[in-house]
Amino acid sequence: FLYFPETHGITFRIKISVKELLDTDVHLKLLFHLPVNYPSTVPDISVSSDQLTRAQCMDVKDKLLEEAKKHLSEPMVHDLILWIQQHLKYVIKQSATVCNEKTTLSKGISTEDGIWMLLLHLDHMRAKAKYVKTVEKWASDLRLTGRLMFVGKIILILLQGDRSNIKEYLILQKTCKVDVDSSGKKCKEKMISVLCETKVQSQHKRFQTFEVQEYSTLDELQKEFETAGLTALFSEFVPPLLK
């Protein structure tokens, strides 16, 4: 990083690599200029990348500035770097393709057209309220619909959406600290099973929203699956969880 006279503040130049869709590395060059009254004022931010268009770089900059406003009065550069590493996919998803010599983002998406469905089984939730809120946020951010379902000790997550978003959800579910361990410390989800990942068929109902549902009996849960045209899915994967 570079130091400037006291009246100008400090400027950081940082290069980061972000694992993008289809395992493509996107290299970002970030410049943060911290004014003398930082962190009471957000830093000036500049974003450049050989793999993103100018418009995409502007989108990244705008999102970083939005995020910076949430951290006023506290050091934020490190948090902003972590944030863009986790959210770059969503920021540029609506923009033009990310190019390199191997592949393009648009080509990758076009080969996976259609809506996909994912059924997950969680062993437990110790910090249930926080866990549920996190799952709801991820589903919203990734434009996924479906259900988070509780019946007895069984916890299921049924998701529908673009396959790339389904894959991204799985990454978040497995790599982020979503629960607490027996001592109360934040921990990653280690007791998760992918029961089914498949393309949504014509007989399957499309969920319009993502909802959290608690069922009193297994019959109520079964009716939810039947209403969605997922009777076979229920019969194959849910009864074995009772054993």
UniProtKB/TrEMBL annotation:
Keywords: Cytoplasm, Nucleus
Gene Ontology CC terms: cytoplasm; nucleus
CDD domains (alphabetical): RWD_RWDD3 (cd23819), RWDD3_C (cd24164)
Domain RWD per the UniProt entry, residue ranges: 1-91
Keyword Nucleus found: yes
InterPro entries: RWD_dom (IPR006575), RWDD3 (IPR038840), UBQ-conjugating_enzyme/RWD (IPR016135)
PANTHER family, per database record: RWD DOMAIN-CONTAINING PROTEIN 3
Name listed for the protein in its UniProt record: RWD domain-containing protein 3
Gene from which this protein is expressed: Rwdd3
